[in-house]
Amino acid sequence: MISKKAQSVVTLFGEMGKADGSMSSDSYRWIYSKCGNQSDLAGISRKSKNIIGMSLNSFKKYCDENVEGGFKSVDALRDKLNRKKHPKKSDKVKSKDELKELRLRIDELERSKAILIKGYNELNTITLDLLGNSKGNSIEYRKHRELYELYFGVSLVVDNNEE
């Protein structure tokens, strides 16, 4: 007859295999959370699955006796689950991709602002000369110039005749 601890180790290894094959990590969160180190894995206690927590040395002993490949295969699977839950390289790649995307967005915004300013300057050369030369529209011209400076942070060229 197999002991409770031996059965516990076999059951845990089976659950780890299921967690590795599962697409959703939510149902196996209890395993993923303990795959950080060997002693946490050995200490898992789950009554519903008949898994008993034990010391690391006892865990190694029962793994070597009852699991195909021994403790090495259990530890390799633990490490695989840990890497699956906490991928290191893909996070760096993802953050680099996000950084590139943000840089592209900033460049696009700067280009859009430059195009807008250029178009607005061309409009100014056509219409503001007419507004500035007309005495009745000088107040509107001054308001327009102040708004332009406020929005774009760019000063219009001041006409020497006005001031």
What are the salient characteristics of this protein?
163 residues, mainly alpha, 2 domains, 70% helix, coiled coil
Would you mind describing this structure in some detail?
The chain has 163 residues and is mainly alpha-helical. It folds into two domains: 4-86, no CATH class; 90-152. The chain has seven helices and no strands. α1 (4-21) packs parallel to α5 (70-85) and α6 (89-133) runs antiparallel to α7 (138-152). The protein is rod-shaped, with a radius of gyration of 35 Å.
Task: Reconstruct the topology from this structure.
Elements: H1 4-21, H2 29-32, H3 38-42, H4 56-66, H5 70-85, H6 89-133, H7 138-152
Keywords: Coiled coil
Coiled coil: 92-119
Low-confidence stretches: none
Tally of extended strands? Answer: 0
Assembly state of the chains shown = single chain
Tally of domains: 2
The termini sit apart by: 105 Å
Estimated structural class:
mainly alpha
Main pleated-sheet profile: none
Please give the radius of gyration in angstroms.
35 Å
The average pLDDT is 81
- Give the overall shape: rod-shaped
Coiled coil: 92-119
Keywords: Coiled coil
